[in-house]
């Protein structure tokens, strides 16, 4: 890539944009934000209960991408690195809420902000909302490491290999957590009458 | 294979992450083992419920980054046009930076005020340094760290090496006192931050007014034929 050559959004890979960022081309961050702000927000929203927290974590993630671009290893995938940063921030947020929730009365987790699924009748919509709520309650009951794997696999569509890279653990560990997570969720749903 | 390996195999099979040879072995086993078939059906059923209950996430507020003065070729630079453009960009940057008062925040939320056309990044616009903010931030970190250490000593977080009842009582009282002090401090700090933000906002409005006044003078000086409104 020539120095100073303007980058077009469609032709450049994420990794090339990060390389440009490392050489001081701050404009590259804007293009990365355009590409990844929505998928990242979706991912983080499923990890933390409050939209405000999700928004803050997304902003902090991009801020760290900007300030720590020198830590990105050549040959790695940008999305994996970005998800790692975001996941660590989500975990920090959950830890802080567990600790400070004893003092702050809003420690009770609010349901994830959702929009109604299109094309459903009112009755079907109500039933679906009940299932959605039951699943969200069930996900909160299982250990966080299992919940992370379930969300990344089922809702983000990541491969086991990608999840293992993000979590920096073996693929077998990811599959094992998936197994126990599904079983734990099944039991949690059964307690709520969902089978 | 041991149980753990079978668990990983079920999951891999469920998500079609097996080779054709592995698939054949698994399906042969499932055809003769009812217990494993039930286990697989159970996993699959839960997976279907999980998938069907994916919450719809509302679109996020647009994330923008602060504009920076664009690079211009030297032949395109002119005192009037170039200076006015750079000054306008600087004003926008200052206005955004002062309106959203935070430390080292380069990425801000758009409230629909700015068109999503150009996204260009810049370095951080830092607010004027104020030791009071740094000190408060440090206190929270210190308190958080101490709270973590105290929590480690609570009986329910320790193993078989349990302290005496008297020690437990002292520890729990200490934690309760610490929570109380932190709560009071948070209330005071919140009030302080609100007042500081309001003061910063008022100061930024005064600076904006002065800057616009300056730009008006520069524009008039460089455009003597422009109509005065």
What does this structure look like?
The complex is a heterodimer of chains A (195) and B (229). The radius of gyration of chain A is 19 Å and the shape is globular. Chain A contains eight helices and no strands. In chain A, helix 1 crosses helix 2, helix 5 packs across helix 8 and helix 6 crosses helix 8. With 229 residues, chain B is mainly alpha-helical. The radius of gyration of chain B is 31 Å and the shape is flat. Chains A and B meet through helix 2, helix 3, helix 5, helix 6 and helix 8 of A and helix 1, helix 3, strand 2, helix 5 and helix 6 of B.
Lay out the secondary structure.
The complex is a heterodimer of chains A (195) and B (229).
Chain A: H1 14-22, H2 27-45, H3 51-67, H4 78-100, H5 122-141, H6 144-155, H7 160-167, H8 171-191
Helix pairs in contact in A: 1-2, 2-3, 3-4, 4-7, 5-8, 6-8, 7-8
Chain B: H1 3-14, H2 20-32, H3 34-52, E1 63-65, H4 79-99, E2 107-109, H5 131-152, H6 165-222
Antiparallel strand pairs in B: 1-2
Helix pairs in contact in B: 4-6, 5-6
Measured between the Cα atoms of the first and last residue of chain A, the distance is: 55 Å
Tell me the strand percentage band of chain B: under 5%
- Order of strands, widest sheet of chain B: 1-2
Mean pLDDT of chain A: 82
Percent of residues in helices of chain B:
55-70%
H-E string of chain A: HHHHHHHH
Beta-strand fraction estimate of chain A? under 5%
Gross morphology of chain B: flat
- Structural category of chain A is mainly alpha
Based on CA atoms alone, the radius of gyration of chain B comes out at 31 Å
Helix content of chain A: 55-70%
Rounded Rg of chain A: 19 Å
Taking pLDDT < 50 over at least 5 consecutive residues as the criterion, the unreliable ranges of chain B are 64-128
Low-confidence stretches of chain A: 1-9, 102-115
Mean pLDDT of chain B: 62
